[in-house]
Amino acid sequence: MSVVTSSKARWRWKQPSVIPGFGLTLGFAIAYLSLIVLIPLAGVAWRSAALGWDEFFRIATDARVVAALRTSFWTAGLAAVINAVFGVIVAWVLVRYEFPGRRLVDAAVDLPFALPTAVAGIALTALYASTGWIGQYFVDWGIRIAYTPTGIVIALIFIGLPFVVRTVQPVLEDFDSEVEEAAATLGASRTQTIFSIILPALFPAILTGFALAFGRAVGEYGSVIFIAGNIPYVSEIAPLLIVMRLEEFNYPAAAAIGAIMLIFAFIILFAINLIQAWSRRRYGHG
Amino acid sequence: MGRADFRNPVSESRRAKWITIFVAGVFLALVLFIPLVAVFVEAFRLGWGAVLAAITQPDALAAIRLTLLVAAISVPLNMVFGVAAAWAIAKYEFKGKAFLTTLIDLPFSVSPVIAGLVYVLLFGTGSFLGPIFNSAGMQILFAVPGVVLATMFVTFPFVARELIPLMEDQGTGDEEAAISLGASGWQTFWRVTLPNIKWGLLYGVLLSNARAMGEFGAVSVVSGRLRGETVTMPLHIEILYNEYNFAAAFAVAALLALLALVTLVLKALLERVYGRDHAGAVRH
Amino acid sequence: MTFKRTLALAALTGSMLLVGGVTAHGQTLINVSYDPTRELYREYNEAFNAYWQEQGNPAVTIQVTHGGSGSQARTVIDGLDADVVTLALASDIDAIAENSGKVREDWLGTLANNNAPYTSTIVFLVRKGNPKNLLDWGDLVGEGVEVITPNPKTSGGARWNLLAAWAWAEEEFNDDEEQVRQFVGDLYRNVPVLDSGARGSTTTFVQRGIGDVLLAWENEAFLAIEELGPDAFDIVVPSISILAEPSVAVVDEVVDAKGTRELATAYLEYLYSDVGQTLAAKHYYRPSDPSVVTDQSLLERFPDVQLATIDDFGGWGVVQPEYFGDGGIFDQIYQPAQ
To answer: Which residues does chain B have within 8 Å of residue A41's beta carbon, measured at their own beta carbons?
Structure first.
């Protein structure tokens, strides 16, 4: 990279570059970003600001809101952890092994992006209800899946499935097999190689995938309301509370809960980008 | 790479291999394939004729038309944005880059409900912009523009997210070489950069398109559900379902799933045919 | 570049489909309604159109939207140009009047019978043979009984459900508020799923097989039996229920801007005609004027039941904030559950 650092170490906003188009592309990107995302989101901040700090604080610490946020976060967290574990296994299988139908499976991993979330919710509810194809086997064990927080976790696993697979897959593909060969030559067993060489190198990608799945799952609405049961303090999620406040024509309160979730979303994403930047420096890939 | 079946120091035992495949298979079956199969089983419960009738019924056709229109507007716009943003972020070093990247990703983890809510707050009653557009005779909410805006918001980061890491990995060497050999900016982009990123771009566009066609939460908040006017395929599914028309609802859902599956398989095939020569540049 | 061509092709196909879809119409009328009226208005719209053309008018395109009553009201507040609203309860139309001024403040009384051309009530839908022997409200709080009702925060019908239970408890416990609250709280603690709308609850009960009893609109219960399983369910009529008055009103601001006041008013008034009342009865709504319905068999289907009215509670102006508002009685039910 032809980065010329000024000898005077003057603060620069942008490093000089011979490639043209910086003003055009950045200008367009920021203008479009503002129009579609930032200005509308500012509306949320503006509406919740109308409440005043005290009222905002009261809504944010209301027991019901706290309970809903807690449900949203722990179910999303658990789903993301499960996705992280199984996502790595799926990515491994897709990259390293040949078996019939591999390409179809590879393509199908993206399906949760495409299937309307409401359809996913209805289909999952039908399957995991105590009368469903899958749910009936769990009833014998005394486990109810649909209409409990477990159901929420199932829906969120579905929603977050592609993220870990799709972030780990390319890294695994690019993984230098010479490193594995070197480890094997030096006497490491296959298990040692996997757990002390390959997995640590995958770790940033897994973390990114985890955070993406988590971020997406926290806000999920369409699929969850069908399977959740929506009982306050138990299986009520934060986005549902937003909808309820809207139905009560209480727009500022809806905006306030929205703002709280936005702040969390922003923190999560900022963490992801820091992880990626760090891993790029350390491993040379995202 | 040592993918051979005999025991080799850089691959696992056959047993480990098949156990791993089995675990992955069971997991995918439980959360992905069985739900997918369930959609198709429900759809075909009343046979082919019923499926055909459900998707050729006028309201269904209008919904398909609107869904395609919304995707046809939002996907290209987001594609242009994604390329521009990735170019600015990947090819230059400037302060605030991580912040800008985070902002671009934001719609990704924003609840779809909030994505709809923002436009209601922006254009609804008591908002600042709503009355202005209304007096100009332009309806945004509960009309096609609102549906398009909500879809654009939800699918906003897909292309950019795909391209930024890819273009950062590729560095600026190729472009610098082209420029120093006298190529203009546009020439560099079309002849050097674009061929390098085309698979990433295609993947981003396909994902963006799939999500645009399937978005439910955000669109349902701003749509108003006027049949034949603001009802997209996912909303049409919801309406049918609420009318106890389960088979028809799943028929339209199956069509949507099929559209997604076909594009994804198509992408996999295209990559197989053309992808080898770009193995380094392609993500998978 | 393959993908560019594909994209262009997709865009072209899309725009062609779009052009194909543009059609021209005369006057249009938008009716924003609530969940269970889908079947009623599908048939009523045809009948009205025929009547309207008989009067020497051009055919009219009628659009009806359905959803939870509250969220439907919200779409009107936020700018959906509805000519008429036909919602589950008066307070949702009040909300439109208050929050947007699109409906005049004194809308209640602009049409006969409190602007309710048809009424309904709340009944129990139980599994065939009533295996848990649920005969009245008191049976619903029993150990192990699962009650399915939608969420009163998002569903209009669910608000009537809670009020009906409340009315029974007031009678049962001689207006001892403490015991009434305890009863209603116990009732909701037997609810395993709070769907967001009446249709969602029906599906949960009927399709998923969850719960022992569904608290439902009378019309919704009849319809569920008719559409989903004549041999699978029974209707149980409790000793006390509530007179649910789904209200209709013209959206003044919209009809004046569009010039559709005459059409919109005729549309609502025709609901009170013999044709409108008969159609309502056919779809299991209780006609407000049964005398114009000639087919007695339609009327005989409605069981006699003692009905409390919303006025017994002090009207929606009092009930909405006190029972269903933020921090109201319904919210309090769940507070100790933490």
So the answer is: 106, 110, 118
Q: How many residues appear in chain B? A: 284
What are the structural domains, with CATH classification, of chain A? Answer: 53-283 (1.10.3720.10)
Distance, CA of B194 to CA of B174 (rounded, Å): 11
Residues A23-40 have a mean pLDDT of 91
Burial class (CB in 10 A: 0-12, 13-18, 19+), B161: buried
Among A133, A170, A262, beta carbon nearest to B114: A262
Nearest by CB to residue A125, choosing from C151, C154, C208, is: C208
- Whether B9 sits inside 8 A of A173 (CB atoms) is no
What's the order of all strands across the beta sheet hosting C61-65? C61-65, C28-33, C84-86, C248-250
Per CB-CB distance under 8 Å, the chain C contacts of B142 are: 75, 78-81
- Name the pTM for this structure: 0.86
Interface contact C195-A230, CB threshold 8 A: yes
Mean pLDDT score of chain C, rounded to an integer? 88
Pairing assessment for the beta strands C28-33 and C61-65 based on DSSP bridges: parallel
**C-beta atoms of C203 and B241 within 8 A:** yes
Closest CA to B31 of A89, A211, A86, A114: A86
CB contact under 8 A, A249 and C95: yes
Secondary structure class of B128 (helix, strand, coil): coil
CA-CA distances (angstroms) from residue B202 to A118, B164, B270?
A: 26, 14, 10
pLDDT digits (tens, 9 = 90+) for C53-109: 999 999 999 999 998 888 899 899 888 889 999 999 999 999 999 988 999 999 999
Those residues of chain C that have pLDDT short of 70 are: 1-25, 335-338
Torsion of CA C31, C36, C42, C44, to 10 degrees: -80
User: Chain B residues with CB inside 8 Å of A112's CB?
Assistant: 32
Please state which architecture CATH assigns to domain C8-119+245-300: 3-Layer(aba) Sandwich (3.40)
Cα separation of A86 and B22, whole Å? 12
List chain B residues with CB under 8 Å of C10. Answer: 68, 71-72, 209
Q: Give the DSSP letter string of B56-80.
A: HSHHHHHHHHHHHHHHHHHHHHHHH
**Cβ contacts of C154 on chain A, cutoff 8 Å:** 243-244, 247
pLDDT in tens, A125-183: 889 988 888 988 988 888 888 889 999 999 999 999 998 998 898 888 888 778 888 88
The residue assigned the tokens 């719960």 is C211
Report, as ranges of residue numbers, the positions in chain B whose pLDDT lies below 70.
1-10, 274-284
> B: neighbours with 3+ CB pairs under 8 Å?
A, C
Nearest by CB to residue A247, choosing from C74, C193, C194, is C74
Task: Name the segment(s) of chain C with CATH classification 3.40.190.10.
Answer: 8-119+245-300, 122-243+305-337
Q: How many CB pairs under 8 A join A and B?
A: 328
Hey, where are the domains in chain B?
47-278
Contact A15 B36 (CB under 8 A): no
ipTM value for the complex: 0.82
CB contact under 8 A, B125 and C79: yes
Three-class DSSP category at C61: strand
Among the partner-chain residues B28, B121, B234, the one whose CB lies closest to the CB of A44 is B121
CATH superfamily label, B47-278? MetI-like (1.10.3720.10)
CATH of domain C122-243+305-337: 3.40.190.10
Are C79 and B134 an interchain contact pair (Cβ–Cβ within 8 Å)?
yes
